[in-house]
Amino acid sequence: MTDDEFAVWLQDETQNNRMSAAQRDDLLAQKKIFEINRPIIEEKLRNRIVGFANGNMLVDDDLHRLIANAQISFPGAMVYFEPIAFDLY
């Protein structure tokens, strides 16, 4: 998903009350942190799933485990994540 597609999706989620404005802003903040760290992430964490929640990097091989760990460590926080150098199916 491109940055523009992501912005459109977030706008739709917020306008249709599937996400609050605070959740949208949290997710955008986590994506911004991810983007700042992207060069290091792409160099050192290939074939892993990398996410950010509450400003903290989470790394795992399993998306469900990454989300579960984020919920335990940062309850209520949004998680922005991407698979690095592979596609999730």
Percentage of residues in DSSP E strands: 15-25%
Helical element count? Answer: 3
- Supply Rg: 13 Å
How many extended strands? Answer: 3
Helix fraction, binned, reads 40-55%
Rough outline = globular
Instruction: Please write the string of helix (H) and strand (E) elements.
Output: HHEEHE
Kindly, what is the distance between the CA atoms of the first and last residues, rounded to a whole number of angstroms?
A: 14 Å
Low-pLDDT segments? none
Q: What does the main sheet amount to?
A: 3 strands, antiparallel
User: What is the count of structural domains?
Assistant: 1
Strand order, sheet with most strands: 2-1-3
What is shown here, in short?
The protein has one domain. 54% of the residues lie in helices and 17% in strands.
Helices and strands in order, then pairings?
Blueprint: H1 3-15, H2 21-44, E1 49-53, E2 56-60, H3 63-73, E3 79-83
Describe this structure in words.
With 89 residues, this protein is of the alpha+beta class. The protein is built from three helices and three strands. A three-stranded antiparallel beta sheet has the order 2-1-3, with helices on both faces. β1 and β2 (56-60) form a beta hairpin.
Keywords:
single chain, alpha+beta, 3 helices
